[in-house]
Amino acid sequence: MKPVLKLRSGAVAAAVWNNKGKDGTFQSFTFERLYKKDDGKWSQTKSFNAADLLNLAALATRLHNDYRVSEKVPQEVELKADAAPAADDQS
After folding, report:
1. 43 contacts 55 by C-beta, under 8 angstroms
2. pLDDT, tens digit (0-9, with 9 covering 90-100), for 33-77
3. How many domains does the chain have?
4. Domain for residue 30, yes or no?
5. Contact status, residue 59 vs residue 48, Cβ threshold 8 Å
6. pTM above 0.90, yes or no
7. C-alpha to C-alpha distance for 59 and 63, rounded to whole angstroms
């Protein structure tokens, strides 16, 4: 299976995949960081460092904006997800 779209920002790459479910086709998204190994060959990892975070965020934001409108997500679920407390929130 091949991705329907590939995007890249710096060393970070994103791919969009079409999947078939009982309710029709839906998309899933993968992210990876590309790097050159000591032997000069290119490789990829699912781990990101601090320098990659803005590129990761840029790709995630673009995909969110492009695909959110096509998702059939109830408004109530969206509000709960948006209202989730931050990880460092003690409440």
Report:
1. no
2. 999 999 999 999 999 999 999 999 999 999 999 887 555 544 443
3. 1
4. yes
5. no
6. no
7. 6
